[in-house]
Amino acid sequence: MTREDCLALDAVDPLAGHRALFEVPPGVIYLDGNSLGVLPKAVPARLAKVVADEWGRDLIRSWNTAGWIDLPAKVGAKIAPLIGAYPDEVIACDSTSVNLFKLAAGALALRPDRHVIVTEPGNFPSDLYILQGLADLKPGLEIRVTPRAELAAALDESVALLLLTEVHYKTGELHDMAALSAKAHEVGALTLWDLSHSAGALPVDLTASGADLAVGCGYKYLNGGPGAPAFAYVARRHQGTFKSPLTGWMGHAQPFAFDDDYLPGMGMARLLCGTPQVLNMSALDAALSVFEGIDMGMVRAKSMALGDLFLTLVQDRCDGLTPACPLGGAQRGSQVALRHPNGYAIVQALIDRGVIGDFRAPDILRFGLTPLYIGFADVWDAVDHLAQIMATEAWREPRYAEVAAVT
User: Fold this and answer.
1) Same structural domain for residues 317 and 334?
2) Would 302 disulfide with which of 121, 170, 211, 371, CB 3.0-4.6 Å?
3) Confidence (pTM)
């Protein structure tokens, strides 16, 4: 595969035109959309309007006149088709970690006679930390951390909840959501899926997969900006009995009645807690416009092709790097991962050349492939820089070994 071949693929790519919807900095090949998505062009104007007109001029009236109060449900409804959910099953609010706590605790309340949550080692650390904190609050709760290959066998009648991230944050390895959800349901357990590295990058169908609960991130592939609100999903069949442990005023059936006693709101409204983050929520609302009319199957096909190309070029041109992700595109999310004992320095050398990926300890070079703004020539150029760095050992420069606070 030559660069000319890659340019030819870009010329016939049906998604190539979507790059114009994003502010991709000149001279940058951005392969870190799995950590922070690129700024959609629709966002700055929306934020300017919210700040200048809705906040600056209309002030508190904008909760009604600009519909601020409806943003969590409105944004959730826009996310719903990207994850195979009904509009009334998704709400945007809080952070992924906070939503994980709410949903995991709520799941335990739905299975009061059970005392086990099953997850896997190497799950995203915040997911594990939240479970550890929940166990501190609930004496007798067991967090059964089970190797991936043994998850199905770990499910028995003591299990209340199976909690997994669909796409592994380091390796990109993809779980079979439908198969594992079915296994959990066979023993009467519920499932909670973290879609932070799935939503907006590959087709997700929570309904067809039988998922019970889900959470996800707003600032990765959904491009909502740093600190964007997360989202939560509760299947319709559980909404009538689901109880959130964080019973804040916005989750009340009548928040502005200011009653002393809590009465949960209808449906997904009971997942709300505090006041919606209007600026961040408005940015995410505008960012989601890039998915209008998008065929996620087409996005998935391009994602797999980009990943296959990246791995093939690395194998052909880069000595010393080994794959840390599945080689088959169908087993990967929209990222590739490589392994090298000096991975951090290599990533810093790449960033110095305008190729932005990221590093995950202890030795993972990670590259997110966002099909809406990454092309085949971008991948060729990125690997070309990587090959030069490996051949010349440019990564050995002392400055590339200086570890920053955020890696």
Assistant:
1) yes
2) 371
3) 0.97
